[in-house]
Design brief:
Blueprint: E1 2-10, E2 14-16, H1 26-36, E3 41-44, H2 45-50, E4 63-66, E5 77-80, H3 83-92, E6 97-100, H4 104-110, E7 116-122, E8 130-131, E9 140-148, E10 158-165
Parallel strand pairs: 1-6, 1-7, 3-4, 3-6, 4-5
Antiparallel strand pairs: 2-8, 7-10, 9-10
Length: 166
Amino acid sequence: MKISLIAAIGENKVIGAKGDLPWHLPDDMKFFSTTTRGHYVLMGRKNYDSIPLKFRPLPGRPNIVVTRTNQINDQHVHVVNTIEKGIQLAREAREEELFIIGGGDIYRQTIGIADKLYITHVDASPDGDTHFPEFDISEYTKTTLEHHPMDDVHNFSFTICVYDKN
């Protein structure tokens, strides 16, 4: 099973601010939805809680939430108390590509085992309290999928890239 991380990252590595995204990028959200649909997604509890109720759990994909408290009352979510148990759950379901979708601590704990990174590089350095971990770009082969300019709907320009581990 391939383990992939998917995130939108500011120039300063910011990915979140006070439990929310620091930008409004609908086309990037469409890319996220299309890319992860049909696959298991793994996230931390804070990330799960930040998803608007009408989108929880994320539709069209099995959701795995890692939490120490098991305080999630949603029968449509797989609740585990370690990342390893979440990965094993997806593996046992014969998932081909598990997507790690955040937050910062979950990314930090999984960046070393990732086979692939789907990174949206946002052309901004917003204030934020959650950051994507550093990674050695020389360990990956980068493919640029799309550049999107700032426009009436997108408050920043961005470039979607895929990094495959060498």
